[in-house]
Design a protein that fits this description.
With 291 residues, this protein is of the alpha/beta class. It contains 13 helices and twelve strands.
């Protein structure tokens, strides 16, 4: 049985779906405050759900009972609820999950982190602290460091409003990032369960072809046949936003946007060699979302 923590999220839900399709028994950790529609969707696809919360260690011990492997994608950066914070949920909560899994005799632990080159902020502190705990837990582990997700950074939620041919560009648009599809990250996580080379290993994930946002815009313009209206957010404005922020989540978001503007360096060559997965390109993604 595989426990997926973050099962109601975009990435966690896709991992659940793919595990079920592969015939694997899946247990999804859900909160009492989780969207009923998302919980029902998990159940309908064949996921066994269990109530739990990263802020409640007792619920994690129960959720890990009888579990062979844990895959955790949970983060407050997208699904923050009352009482959540990066130090409480992303750091201490994940540390409690590592402890609960170890004490329950879980054999494998897969952790979805962030790029190694990310600048210091509350989110990087939380991620690196959890990574260290996983590495010394005694469980077989795999830590994945994906670059920026297409489904997030090339979506209207972040200002890439492709349905209306508009895009907000952070920085001058010339710095390159290795975009990666959410579905590919899900497959990396699943394949980590059985790939011998993924035992006690960490991988940076990204498409082999780095692109800057202006190149991405041109791909969408060519695919959709519409010229984009662009709005630029200068790096100085992003730096000022970070300096003025006091909340850990706001500081982390501002740092992430500034890093994207600079271009996040990811060396995905080792992951490409070990897993040999066919990866979704930005062109593929553009064709999919534009129909």
């Amino acid at each position: 049985m595989i426990l997926v923590v973050g099962s109601t999220g975009f990435l966690g839900g896709e991992i659940c779906r793919r595990l079920v399709v592969a015939g694997k028994p899946v247990r999804g950790l859900v909160r009492s405050s989780s969207s009923p529609e998302k919980v029902e969707r998990l159940k309908a696809m064949g996921v066994q759900t269990v109530l739990g919360d990263l802020r409640e260690p007792g619920s994690l011990r129960e959720a890990c009972r009888g579990i062979d492997a844990v895959i955790t994608t949970a983060s407050t950066t997208i699904s923050m609820q009352p009482g959540d914070s990066i130090p409480i949920t992303d750091q201490q909560g994940q540390l409690e999950l590592v402890k609960a899994a170890r004490e329950a005799g879980v054999g494998r632990f897969i952790y979805i982190s962030i790029p190694l080159s990310m600048e210091d902020c509350p989110l990087t502190v939380a991620k690196r602290t959890v990574e260290k705990a996983i590495g010394t837990s005694g469980m077989v582990y795999t830590i994945l460091h994906p670059c920026i997700l297409m489904e997030v950074w090339l979506s209207p939620a972040i200002g890439f409003d492709y349905p209306n041919a508009k895009a907000t560009i952070y920085g001058d648009g010339h710095s390159k990032n290795r975009f990666i599809s959410l579905g590919d990250v899900a497959q990396y996580a699943i394949d980590s369960l059985s790939n011998p080379a993924a035992r006690n290993a960490a991988f940076e994930l990204g498409h082999p072809q780095p692109l800057n946002f202006l190149e991405v815009v041109r791909i969408f313009e060519k695919t959709g046949g519409k010229s984009f209206e662009l709005q630029f957010v200068p790096e100085a404005a992003l730096a000022a936003q970070r300096a003025a922020s006091t909340d850990p989540l706001q500081v982390s978001f501002a740092t992430l946007m500034l890093n994207v503007a600079h271009g996040i360096h990811v060396d995905s060559s080792w992951a490409t060699k070990v897993f040999a997965l066919p990866l979704v390109s930005v062109e593929d993604y553009a064709r999919r979302v534009l129909g």
